[in-house]
Design a protein that fits this description.
Layout lengths: L1 E3 L1 H13 L20 H13 L12 E4 L2 E4 H15 L6 H5 L3 H7 L1 E3 L5 E3 L3 H19 L4 H7 L10 H5 L11 H12 L17 H10 L2 E3 L1 H8 L6 H22 L3 H14 L12 E3 L4 E4 L8 H4 L18
Antiparallel strand pairs: 1-6, 2-3, 4-5, 7-8
Helix pairs in contact: 1-12, 2-9, 10-12, 10-13
């Protein structure tokens, strides 16, 4: 039903190895705590925000707003609102505070005006409140209210017979995705900020979300059966089992690509996100659109992957998009 195309993975790895890229250090004060802030405060912020970092919009309503003259949407808006709360009250992110948080408080925090002046709220407020309360209660009970103890107990391991950070995070409802998207997203933030230095980097993986799945399918590095392809093209819902299997294959494909291109999976994730946001849009890829992408050192460039992309050569493949498995907090 699903397979990897090793030839396409090899071709894609060659293209990725040619891309010049400056990784984000995640220090933009609009989205992340500034350098020099107390370590525990920074750890709390990232643990909490990543716990809530899954689909923010519905098919009908986009989570989007203008704040201080800048437009934010999706996850970027979520983190912008997170930092506004962090600056006004860092203790909001304390386990004690989270253990008692209510739905109305979360709703008020994550409700904004969109560019048309309409009030929009992040989707699944009730679920996000549950995840935050679960996080707060368990950090208190299991780790004495200190997020830093999770890192200490991990021994700077990602995974292993002795629990690594991914294993420990599975205590929390928000981090129980079988494909571990949020866990590896958190590792990416913490590693880039110098808060976690894994001794088993070979266990690093890309955090597989919708954007990475879409790119893998269109590149042709993950190939699905005709039956499943029809579901993807027509946006028909898939099962929980299909979701897990698809994303496992996507993770495997990018792991191989990472090794061949000599790019860390956590850096590769940044590259894929930029390409997805700039050219590989969900409804229709814009492969030949000319864009400036400072992070990729590209000026007036088309998609750098188009020459090896299966969807660029095949009009039918351009209809491929990530699978429709919407009711989840995993990604």
């Amino acid at each position: 039903m699903i397979r990897l195309d090793l030839n396409n993975i090899s071709l894609a790895s060659e293209e990725f190895s040619r891309i010049s890229f400056k990784p984000d250090e995640f220090t933009d004060p609009r989205l992340y705590p500034p350098k020099g802030d107390p370590r525990e405060n920074v750890l709390r912020y990232f643990l909490v925000m990543v716990a809530m970092d899954h689909r923010t919009s519905t098919p009908q309503i986009e989570f989007k707003s203008i704040i201080d003259g800048a437009t934010y949407r999706g996850a970027y808006l979520l983190y912008r609102l997170g930092m506004l709360k962090y600056y006004s009250n860092p203790e909001f992110f304390s386990p004690r505070r989270l253990s008692e948080i209510g739905i109305d408080e979360v709703r008020n925090w994550l409700t904004v005006r969109d560019p048309r002046g309409r009030e929009v709220t992040v989707r699944d407020v009730e679920l996000r409140t549950l995840l935050l309360r679960d996080l707060g209660v368990k950090v208190l009970k299991l780790y004495g209210g200190e997020v830093s103890k999770i890192l200490e107990l991990s021994g700077n391991r990602i995974k292993g017979l002795k629990p690594g950070i991914v294993d420990l995070l599975k205590d929390f409802r928000a981090y129980q995705d079988p494909v571990e998207k949020k866990a590896f997203l958190l590792i990416k933030f913490l590693e880039r900020r110098g808060l976690f230095t894994p001794v088993d980097y070979e266990n690093a993986e890309v955090p597989v979300d919708n954007r990475l799945t879409r790119i893998a399918l269109r590149l042709g590095i993950v190939v699905v059966s005709d039956e499943l392809k029809e579901k993807l093209v027509e946006w028909k819902p898939v099962s929980y089992e299909d979701d897990v299997v698809i994303r496992i294959y996507v993770r495997r494909a990018f792991k191989i690509l990472s090794k061949l291109s000599n790019i860390s999976p956590l850096i590769l994730d940044d590259l894929l996100w930029l390409i997805g946001a700039t050219w590989c849009r969900r409804e229709s890829p814009e492969c030949d659109a000319v864009r400036d992408v400072v992070e990729l050192n590209l000026r007036s460039s088309k998609c750098p992957l188009r020459n090896i992309c299966y969807a660029y050569r095949n009009l039918e493949a351009r209809k491929l998009k990530e699978h429709n498995y919407y009711d989840t907090w995993y990604y």
